[in-house]
Amino acid sequence: MQQFVRVQQGNAVIPALVSGSGLLDLRPLVADITPESIASGVLTKVSAATLKPLTGEVRYLAPIQGIRQIPATGFNYKKHIEDNEGPDSHGAGGLPEIGALLDWTFRSNPPRPQ
Fold it and tell me: Is there a domain that residue 78 lies in?
C-alpha cells in the first residue's frame, strides 16, 4: 500500500509519496492531494522510480486538502479482538456480556432522574 502525505517547505505545499528512502515529490503528477485528485485515479499506481526525492526540512500537513474529517476503519480490529481473548476485566473470553454498556456505547433512551 502506498502512503501519501502533504508537506510544507517554505511557502510551498508539496504532495509526496512516502518511500523507504524518504519523501518523493508528487508535483509532476498532481498539484495537491485533494478529493478530486484522488477520484481521478492518478494516485492509484504511482511509480516511485519516476519521482525525485524531497530534500530539506518539511512540516507535515493534513493528508488531504479541502476536507475536515476523514472516516477511518480499524483494519486491525479482528487482530485486536484475537489478542484480547482470554480472562480480563470483561470476564472469560475477553468480550463483554451482551447488553453491557461500554465506553463507546450509549443509551438511546437513558433513564430519567426520579
Answer: no
> Per the domain annotation, does 73 fall within a domain?
no
Q: In the 8-state DSSP scheme, what is residue 56? A: S
pTM for this prediction: 0.60
* pLDDT (tens digit per residue) in 47-66: 899 999 999 999 999 888 98
Q: How many domains does the chain have?
A: 1
Tell me which H or E stretch contains 28. none
Residue type, 87: P
| Residue 105, C-alpha cell as written in the block | 456505547
What grid cell was written down for 8? 510544507
- Rounded to whole angstroms, the Cα distance separating 93 from 72 reads 27
User: Under a CB-based contact definition with an 8 Å cutoff, are residues 25 and 53 in contact?
Assistant: yes
Q: State which residues form the domain around 21.
A: 3-60
